Amino acid sequence: MIEKKQLDFATNAIHAGQKPDSDSGAIMTPIYQTSTYVQESPGVHKGYEYARTANPTREALEANVAALEGARFGFAFSSGMAAISTLTNLLQQGDHVVVADNVYGGTYRFFQQVMANFGLTFSFVDTSDFSRVEEAVRPNTRMIFIETPTNPLLRLTDIAQLATFCKHKDLLLAVDNTFMSPYFQRPLSLGADIVVHSSTKYLNGHSDVVGGIVLLNDESIAERIGFLQNSAGAVPGPFDCWLVLRATKTLPLRMRQHNSNAGEIARFLVEHPKVEKIIYPGLPSHPQHELAKKQQLDPYGKPGYGGMISFELGSFERGKAFLEKVRVFSLAESLGGVESLISHPASMTHASVPADERQRIGLSDSLVRISVGVEYVDDLIQDIEQALE
Ligand code: P1T
Fold first, then answer.
1. How far from the centroid of its chain's Cα atoms is residue 339's Cα?
2. Which one of 6, 330, 353, 358 is at 20 to 30 Å from 53 when CA atoms are compared?
3. Smallest Cα–Cα separation from 319: which of 271, 367, 277?
C-alpha cells in the first residue's frame, strides 16, 4: 500500500514515492536495471525476487502518480493500451461494458476486435448524455469506461453523476484521464473506481516513452490488478519508469503552460474566418463549458482545460493543406509533449474506427486536432496564421 501524504500536489509531484538511495544518498531514484535479485537463501531476500513482479524504480513511479491522483495504489504498464487491456482482464466471459462512443481509436479497436472475441460485449454510447448510459446498462453490465474529455471530440462526461449511478448499480467506473492529467482532473475524488493513463502523454510529457498506469483505491481490485500485472507481464522497463518519474516533477509547470497556450490559441481560432468550428472546453461556446469549469480543476480549485484543441476547416483538402503548411507544429500522432503536434484523427489516431461509426459520432474527415505544447505562444499563433492563409 502506498503511504498517503498530505503535501501539496506540486510537492508530491517532486517527492512522492522517492527517498534518497540508502546505499549512496543519491537524491534521484536509481534506475534498477536488473531482471532479478540475489537471495540469501531460498525465499530470504530484500523484498524483490524477479523484476516482472517488482522493481524499485517502477514502485517509485507507481507511488508518485498514485499520490497525484489521490490513489492508494498504482500499477505501471508498458503502454496505455497495456493498462487498458489489464482493466478488461478484471472482467469475465459474458460481461458487458458501456464505453464512451468517442474514445481513442486504439481503445475502440482493442475492445471491438480483440476482447469481443473473448465473450465480452461493448455498447458504445454518448456518455455525455446520462440518459444514454441508463438505457445502455444491461443485467450483465459490469463496467463503464469513459474518457473525459474524449479524444478527439473533447466531449465531457459528468464523472460525479456517473459515479453515483455506478455505485447504485454496482458497476465499476473506469476513467481514462490522459487528456487532463491529475493536475486538472482527479476522477477518484469524484467517485470513480479506477483511473487509467497513457503516460506516454502528459505524465511523461517529452515524447520519449510509451507507457501506461492504473490508479485506484479499492484494495481487493488492486490485489487483482497487481496479480494481472505480474501474470500478463506487460510491465515497463526501469529506464522508462525513471523517465516518467523525472517528468512528473514538472507536471504542474507544464500543465499550466499547456493550458495557458491552448486558451490563447483557442481564442485566436474562434476569431479566424477560415475556422468553421472549434472545440475547446475552455471556450464558453463549448456545450459543456459549465461542467468543465466544475469538474476540471487544478489542485487549488481553479478550472483548467488542458492543451488539446480540435477544429474544422470545412473540407478534407483544406485540412490537408493546413497540416502540410505548419512549421512549428509537427504532423504526428500522440499528444501531451512539450512540443506542439498536429494530427488528422480520421486518417491517423482514429483510422481503426470504421468510417460510418466516425460519421455517427461526428468525427468528420475535415477535423484537425492539435496538442498545444509549451513553446512561446506567439510563435505557435503565427505558425497557425501563416498555415491558414
Ligand atoms: O499509446 P498508448 O500509450 O498505448 O496509449 C493509448 C491511449 C489511451 N488513451 C488515450 C486517451 C490515448 O490518447 C491513447 C493514445 N493516443 C494517441 C496515440 C493519440 O495520438 O491520440
1. 18
2. 6
3. 367
Could you give the CA distance from residue 195 to residue 69 in angstroms, rounded to a whole number? 8
- Specify the residue for cell string 460510418: 356
Residues 47 and 82 in one domain: yes
Query: Which residue has the CA at smallest separation from atom 17 of ligand 1?
Result: 334
Residue 334 CA, ligand 1 centroid: distance in Å: 7
Produce one character per residue of 347-377: b if its CB has 16 or more CB atoms within 10 Å, e if not.
ebbbbebeeeebeebebbbbbbbbbbbbbeb
Percent of all residues in the chain with a pLDDT value above 90, rounded to a whole number: 98
Domain around 262? 251-388
**R_g over Cα of the chain:** 21
Ligand 1 centroid from CA 101, angstroms: 15
- Concatenated DSSP letters for 260-294? HHHHHHHHHHHH-TT--EEE-TTSTTSTTHHHHHH
Distance CA 58, CA 238 (A): 6
Is the C-beta atom of 383 inside 6 A of ligand 1?
Answer: no
Residue keyed to cell 502523454: 201
User: Are residue 225 and residue 83 in the same domain, yes or no?
Assistant: yes
Check: CB of residue 312 under 8 Å from CB of residue 275: yes
Residues marked as catalytic: 52, 104, 176, 201
Q: Return the best residue to mutate from 103, 109, 200 for the ligand 1 pocket (most ligand atoms within 8 A of CB).
A: 200
Q: What is the pLDDT of residue 3?
A: 56
Mean pLDDT of all residues in 311-327: 95
Residues 192-214 pLDDT 10s: 999 999 999 999 999 999 999 99
Average pLDDT, the chain: 97
pLDDT band at 60 (very low <50, low <70, confident <90, very high): very high
Share of the chain above pLDDT 70, in %: 99
The answer, yes or no, to whether residue 263 has pLDDT greater than 80, is: yes
CATH number at residue 129: 3.40.640.10
How much is the pTM? 0.97
Same domain, 111 and 229: yes
- Report the sign of the C-alpha dihedral through residues 376, 379, 385, 387, in that order: negative
The number of folded domains in the chain is 2
Quickly state the pLDDT bin for 6 (edges 50, 70, 90): confident
Does residue 2 lie within any of the structural domains? no
